[in-house]
Amino acid sequence: MKLTISKEDYLKAIAEAEAEEGTVIAATIARWLSVTPPAVALALRRLRRDKLVEVDRKGRIALTPAGREVSDKLRFRHHLVERMLHEMLGMEWYKVHDEAERLEHSISDDLERKLIEKLGTNHACPHGNQINKSVAERHKLGFRLLWEANPGSSVKVESMYERDRQLLEYFDGLGIRPGVELTVLKRNYDGTVSIRLGKNSLNLGEPAARRVWVSHVSG
Are 155 and 216 in contact (CB under 8 A)? Predict the structure, then answer.
């Protein structure tokens, strides 16, 4: 079996979509990778042939143990590259995902070991995300989407969706990034949520507010 970059990208996308959304079907992958349904169908046939994924009668996609091993390795290297770019090279946090997408396939075992020695393995990426942290696990930690936070509550930004560069730049321009504390003022009739960040008040649309995970700040 030959593992191509395309196959690795599909396996990683399945694992990431599973962590973010739970059930994964072909349409999920098409949306996640911005590819056509026929392209996804062809990729799934190849992945099934190589025993890297399984698809049940309802079209639900699951990684096999072999597929999970590949996706876990790639996701870990992506995580290390993001941290290397940000912590060691000083690249802006909202830029590192796209760079890591290109570099993750080229990381050797030797370089991986060196990065682990330098960075360790127990830290979040610049977007606040931990590897393989599912929605259910985030809820167990008390995290909620910003859109779901109670009006009047003070919250800290824990992590955010990292696959949308324009959205990350938008957040950065507003001062919204991991570690920042803000106050949720109210949810509005027009589908926005009003927040206070420092001395500034602003409104975020629901799609953006559903891309940010927050935790409650006591007191």
Answer: yes
Mark whether 56 and 76 lie in a shared domain: no
The H-or-E segment that residue 61 falls in is strand 61-63
| DSSP single-letter state for residue 73 | H
Q: What is the CATH number of the domain that holds 23?
A: 1.10.10.10
- Give me the CATH number covering residue 74: 1.10.60.10
Q: Indicate whether 79 and 101 sit together in one domain.
A: yes
Q: How far is CA 14 from the centre of its chain?
A: 12
Q: How far is CA 33 from CA 27, 63, 165, in A?
A: 10, 17, 14
Let me know if residue 127 belongs to a domain.
no
Residue 128: which of 213, 209, 198, 205 has the closest Cα? 213
* Residue-number span of the structural domain to which 102 is assigned: 69-119
Q: Look-up: residue for tokens 């959205």?
A: 167
pLDDT tier for residue 218 given thresholds of 50, 70 and 90: low
pTM as predicted = 0.90
| pLDDT tens-place string over residues 22-42 | 899 999 999 999 999 999 999
Residue 55 scores a pLDDT above 60: yes
